[in-house]
Amino acid sequence: MQPTSPTSPTFPSPARRTLLRGIAGAAALGAGVPLLSACGGSGSSSDPKTVTLGSNQSDAVPKKAYGDIYTAFTQQSGITVKVNTKDHNTFQEQINSYLQGTPDDVFNWFAGYRMQFFAKKGLASPIDDVWQKIAGNFPEAMRKLSKGEDGKYYFVPLTTYPWAVFYRKSVFRQHGYQVPTTWDAFVALCKQMKKDGLVPIAFGDKDAWPAMGTFDQINFRVNGYDFHVQLMAGKASWTDAKVKAVFDHWSEILPYHQDGFMGRTWQDAAQTLVAKKAGMYVLGSFVGQQFTNQADLDDLDFFAFPEINPAYGQETVEAPTDGFMVSKSPKNHDGVVKLLEFLGTPAAEEIYLKGDPSVVAASTNASTASYTPLQKKAFEMISGAKSLTQFMDRDSRPDFTSTVMQPGLQKFLQNPKGVDGLLSSIERQKKTIFASE
Q1: Three-state secondary structure call for residue 225
Q2: What is the pLDDT of residues 278-308, one digit of tens each?
Q3: I want to staple 318 with a disulfide (CB 3.0 to 4.6 A). Which of 82, 151, 163, 222 is the partner?
């Protein structure tokens, strides 16, 4: 987590999504020395009063917030949660070896394809029995996000946050701008902002991941949730005309993106929004951590990425979601069920959010009384979505996104006219990488 002022809510670091950049395919999926192991290094405990948990929450704030949940669970149940915390990136890099060895009973992980990958490999246990108790706490989109390809549940969500188009209310008031809900209105607004001397869309892609978020937004607005999921899972072709349509739309707004993006971090791009030099920014809600002055933060707002295809409207929201999974052979099954049933309650989420106000609850039943206006709006956007996506590197194989898509999207941004050859190249590499499944 990056430091913020005491008055500014902390938002998730984007490093959390670029976990495996630069790691070759085999290593990214876990080949290598299995340094990550269960508590004590000898597998999960068979003690009926203990559940072991592998945690990637090594940063101080989330580590304590999760710890508060486990303490509350122990007080309620008498079952101790023995936490095995590893560095966040190390956990991701070695997760495959860890799960094939002697893992802890429960482990922190991500919703969507990342979850489905291990479920399909038989490295996680279905938890339909848990969902019989907790299903009423979550909206349909969150329930869908927690299922494997076989239709069984494998994941209990805890926290989430949205991607959207962020802007400053005072800038919109000053110029008389209206929030665009359609693509044509969005393009028209970009043109007007440029005439008014603003950078229409703040943008920095030095770290290669922000462009993936823009692709996701346009893709599910043009082609819908189902096609987006199929494409990310390697089941749809990158040479499909539907994909070309995504890049055609992107090319239309590319002239309104901030210049010099290859040398700019997302934080630097955010500063142009803070300074009122940029009109909009397509990013996750962690952009708020750059608004260290409370008055500036109070001026921050967002709207859903505009509709492109009326058939899909604005029904899909990109909302990276963190939560829990169960390893393939937990030693204390009964204790695991009790823990996950507790983790799936609004009470557990409220405990977490007291210690970490950077995110919002995955449950629609959790109290929003302590939320800031921005958090409340984020919560409403996510809970009202028909479908939720994660983020490209969570919705697809990490080796594919880090070695193919990140450099591929940067090539497009620098040479949008070469998109046909680029998509053919992506498709060839995709076939090779996904054939290893």
Answers
A1: helix
A2: 999 999 988 887 888 989 989 999 999 999 9
A3: 163
pLDDT of residue 110: 92
Q: Is 102 left (phi over 0), alpha (psi -120 to 50) or beta?
A: beta
- Alpha carbon 106 to chain centroid, angstroms: 20
Give residue 37's Cα distance to chain centre. Answer: 25
Residue 82 and residue 39 in contact, taking contact as beta carbons nearer than 8 Å: yes
pLDDT tens per residue across span 117-170: 899 999 999 999 999 999 999 999 899 999 999 999 999 999 999 999 999 999
Q: How many CB atoms lie within 10 A of CB 30?
A: 20
| pTM, 2 dp | 0.80
List, edge to edge, every strand of the sheet that includes 199-202: 199-202, 278-284, 163-168, 300-303
Q: Which class for 75: exposed (0-12), middle (13-18), buried (19 or more C-beta within 10 A)?
A: exposed
Please report where in the chains the tokens 């989420």 appear, as a residue: 349
Domains and CATH numbers, the chain: 14-160+322-389 (3.40.190.10), 163-317+397-434 (3.40.190.10)
Report d(CA 50, CA 291) in Å as an integer. Answer: 42
Q: Is 109 helix (H, G, I), strand (E, B) or coil?
A: strand
**Which ranges constitute the DSSP H helices of 356-405?**
373-383, 392-395, 398-400
Tokens of 132: 């019989």
**Buried residues in 396-418 as b, exposed as e (16+ CB within 10 A):** bbbbbbbbbbbebbbebbeebee
Strands 199-202 and 278-284: parallel
> Which tokens belong to 241?
């005309």
- What is the C-alpha to C-alpha distance for residues 314 and 329, in angstroms, rounded to an integer? 40
The token pair that represents 201 in the structure block: 């869309």
pLDDT for residue 15 is more than 70: no
Give 26-90 as a DSSP string: HHHTT-S------GGGS-----TTEEEEEE---SHHHHHHHHHHHHHHHHHHS-EEEEEE--HHH
Q: Is the dihedral of CA 207, 208, 213, 218 positive or negative?
A: positive
pLDDT of 276 over the 70 cut = yes
DSSP code per residue over 161-190: --EEEEEEHHHHHHHT-----BHHHHHHHH
Residue pair 316/322 in contact by the 8 Å Cβ criterion: no
Q: Which amino acid is at 127?
A: I
The C-alpha atoms of residue 230 and residue 39 are separated, in whole angstroms, by 37
